[in-house]
Write a structure and sequence with these properties.
Elements: E1 5-8, H1 18-27, E2 32-38, H2 50-57, E3 63-69, H3 73-83, E4 87-91, H4 98-107, E5 111-116, E6 134-138, H5 153-166, E7 172-176, H6 185-190, E8 194-197, H7 199-202, H8 207-228
Helix pairs in contact: 2-3
The structure holds 5-O-phosphono-D-xylulose and cobalt (II) ion.
Cobalt (II) ion binds near residues 36 and 196.
GO molecular function, one term: D-ribulose-phosphate 3-epimerase activity
Cofactor: Mn(2+); Co(2+); Fe(2+); a divalent metal cation
Protein name: Ribulose-phosphate 3-epimerase
Length: about 230
């Protein structure tokens, strides 16, 4: 069974209680912490800076999964690496020379991710898969938490899953946006193994219970995938 990784997105955490909320998801068994960085240009919203990563690094042993929604990501890789990121993901749509950016991320000893907006085809990253540790498929338009999952991305997830399997590559497939315990089995059935979830986790009454249920439902998705031989 391929291991499911849960990456709670702190965009939906309580900004006045970030340390507490990060501790809650860590105690609940999450493996990653998803940190959205927005610049108001690539996406019409602003969020955290590297300072938040630097501060949380002292408080948490979670794997920091940093999603850069920046028009000028290349300018900031060194800063986000130094601040304590473990995985640094850039958007294919925002980076002029993706190969060089991924090599730069690796030069800091970090894992390199590439993200695609819902409308960007998988073809756009086929030439960089050998430099990629994680592909982050957006299942909403990037910019905001609390949106609804776009089911049309399911096809793209299974397309990528087949490519990765056929080429025997060691690349995680991460999905981000609108994921809840009710729908998580769908992207997993299609091939995803890293699950980002913000509002469904942080707005729930019982974070631990929600993460446990989400993981269980995701594991069912893995079984369904294996049975159907997707
Ligand atoms: O990158 C983004 C949004 O651009 C996400 O990581 C959101 O933070 C996910 O939030 P939910 O859709 O799960 O509420
Ligand atoms: Co994100």
């Amino acid at each position: 069974m391929s291991k499911i990784i849960i990456s709670p997105s702190i965009l939906s955490a309580d900004p006045a209680n970030l340390e507490r909320d990060v501790r809650l998801v860590e105690e609940a068994g999450a493996e990653y912490l998803h940190i959205d960085i927005m610049d108001g240009h690539f996406v019409p919203n602003l969020s955290y800076s590297a300072n938040v990563i630097r501060a949380l690094r002292k408080k948490s042993n979670l794997i920091f999964d940093v999603h850069l929604m920046l028009q000028d990501a290349d300018k900031f890789i060194d800063e986000f690496a130094e601040a304590g990121s473990d995985i640094i993901t850039v958007h294919q749509e925002a980076v002029p020379n993706l190969k060089e950016t991924l090599k730069n991320i690796h030069s800091f000893g970090k894992k390199a991710g590439v993200s695609l907006k819902p409308g960007t085809p998988v073809d756009m990253i086929l030439n960089v898969l050998d430099l990629t540790d994680v592909v982050l498929l957006m299942t909403v338009e990037p910019g905001f938490g609390g949106q609804s999952y776009l089911h049309q991305v399911d096809k793209k997830i299974s397309e990528l899953y087949k490519i990765i399997n056929n080429q025997n590559l060691n690349i995680g497939i991460e999905v981000d946006g609108g994921i809840t315990e009710e729908n998580v089995n769908r992207p997993v059935r299609a091939g995803a193994n890293i699950i980002v979830s913000g509002s469904a986790i942080f707005n729930s009454n019982n974070i631990k219970d929600t993460i446990n249920k989400m993981r269980k439902k995701a594991e069912q998705g893995v079984q369904e995938r294996e049975i159907n031989n997707f």
